Fold each of these.
Amino acid sequence: MEILARTKRLTIRSWDETDIETYAAMVADPEVMKHIGEGQPRGRDYAEEFVHRMMELFEKRGWIRFAVEHAESGELMGFCGFETAGECGDVQDFGWRFARKFWGAGYGTEAVLCVLELGRSRYDLPMIESKSYPENIGSMKLFEKMGMSFLRESEEFGRRIVHYGFPDKS
């Protein structure tokens, strides 16, 4: 496991095998998954596949959806980071997911601001965008705090999606 950044309350790091069970519990929570994909909880197989893919991509390219750990307790809180998107793989989809017990304490803001800076300074990632269902108020607030602007709308799983990003910093 490699530590990439620290804030006052968070450690941004790569993933390892020990994260699978905690992440599996997180994605099994219907409230956590309500605004993700089809809005359904996911099983342990999904969590294991995700963690292994992040470990492989970290070795291959360095930037991923980084594990976010509570600095004081060492507990995995969720993730924050980047995944390739766009028709030509030219867009970096910036996303996050946190266990419900960490909601509402400013951890999301702390993580996205740290990881956004990491993506720009260490990995020089261009065309960073985020997307969400508009009813996901928490994500909409984070877009604003990052200084993102509305880019466009699309549809996924029969639901309206809004895309935000930094059109002037592509």
Note: The longest helix spans residues 44-61.
Amino acid sequence: MNRLGRSLELFFVDGRADGMLTAEVFGWTGHVLRAPRTQIKDALMRPEAGFTGVYVLLGETKDGPLAYIGEAEDMRVRLRDHVSNKGWWDDAILISSAANNLHKAHIKYLESRLVEIARDVAHTTLENGNTPPRSSLNEAAQANMESFIDTLMMVLPAIRVDLFLQKKVTAVLQEQPDTSKASDVGESWPPLMPAFQLTTRSGEILAYAKLQGGEFIVQHGSKARITVGKSSTDGVTRKRQQLLNAHTIIENDGWLEFVDNYSFQSPSGAADFINGYSTNGRISWKEVKTGKTFAEWEQASIDSGMNLI
């Protein structure tokens, strides 16, 4: 299903891109405030800080990113406590309603769902000990909160909050191709969904991927080397551990195997992850049908599109 475009309004409170900001969407009742810890005093003086809502604390430790998700009927009081008893966080995200019409059951439900989503994505370690139970809402109220969350999942990545951003693609749009034959892979996906493959230097196929909706999606059944080379970044190692924790990849017969489709931001990011060392994915990924590199395929696609203008 194609989604309609939506308009997100960001307000940079002090005119700085790295400072305090608010985010709202036309027709959405929600309100989001992001504040760096260095401006938490100013953030707590804002009226929405005293609203009923859910908050997220974000920080970085030696083991990687860390987050905490909590709820409060007055977020100002709870955050004041966290300034004193939690030293690791750097940013606070305050999620409320612009009219302050969320009540205790709403935010308990929202807190539980956000913890569930963050644990499923497994992008960031949570300091939360357990997943809190969902509050008891009637069917209509649950539907309203799920709609609220759906919009929130669009807003948060736009303000650099990625712990809820799902890269695992579990929905199967059509039957997966027989990956034993490269020709079958190329024929199984429609022309507007190009298929690419990544091979070892000896020609063994490691992985298949498709480009869909601007996402470079490595297909389940693809393999990645277990070892990581010296040219690899710490980010690749952390990403592998995150995907292992989320059971998106597993160790199998001396390889890491994708058990779900997984979306990467770029062909190079996918190739780095699979090879275990720095790789130019625009050259190493080849289109299955033609053998063109991703870069060659991309250029041909642009030239074809320009000819239609």
Note: Confidence is low (pLDDT under 50) at residues 171-191.
Amino acid sequence: MVINFNKKTFNSKYIAKISMAYDYALDFLKISNKNLEINISFVSKNEIKSLNANFRNMDKVTDVLSFPTLLEPNKTNMQVIIDKLNNNVFLTDLNPETNCIVIGDVCICKQIVYQHAKEYGNTRMREMVYMAVHGLLHLLGYDHILDDDRKIMRGIEEEIMAHLDLKRGV
């Protein structure tokens, strides 16, 4: 998997842990095609609020937003695309430089993630990686609108986090 980080604002420790989390997520979810590409950026509170307002009609700050390129917008139930992730299906979504399927963008508001880490009693590292994993799962079609879907998504998130040994707490 190719992960394009906005390196101006990303700490190398975050890059390493998020990369490990994504590698494990692909294995855990049994995604055989590793030729996937994702963009991850840190954004300010104002930027994430603006993105949230423009794309979700929610005029508020949030911790993470995902912008999937392979999913139909405005679905109200999960449409997991793991089985469809092959280059022949998504020919028009290949980055010609990497020959990887571009699955989308994840925007993370570092200030909100740090605030949540403090509120939930987690380390900043754990909260940051958790938000990145959360964003990835949204790009793959997982969602948490319905209770059953939320249980599935949370279970996957916790499995990935447990594998990384990023325990809760400071």
Note: The mean pLDDT is 89.
Amino acid sequence: MTADRRKRHLKILELISTRAVRTQEELADALAADGWQVTQSSVSRDIASLRLVKVDGVYRRAPASRARDPDELRIAEGVLTAEPAGDALVVVHTPPGEANRVGIALDRLAWPEIVGTIAGDDTIFLAVSNQAAQRQVLRRLRAIAAPSG
């Protein structure tokens, strides 16, 4: 996923969490008002990629049904992307305001590969011991956050 697409996805999640967005056109207009040049078809692909659903006529994130453990559920619902950074860092992006909740869930799971977490508003830095641990954490995060369909 490109950095621009990831930023646009984060903006879409911010928009749907702060206002009632009922149509793809409303979402495209809100993005355009914020400086994004998007088409209806790109917004449609973003909605599918983010697994958004309509609840009471407005777009929301779909509940994650695969996760069994409450902490895994928090991770499944909260992780948008997880990418390596350097040899011993994983950067996780979440919807705005969700990083702390996901970071706590990761801390509770106590994965041995993670030696520390720092959570901001929508970004979490996971310090890992080495590249092998980094690959393992990325695999685990992506498996939990993957769509269940």
Note: The longest strand covers residues 114-119.
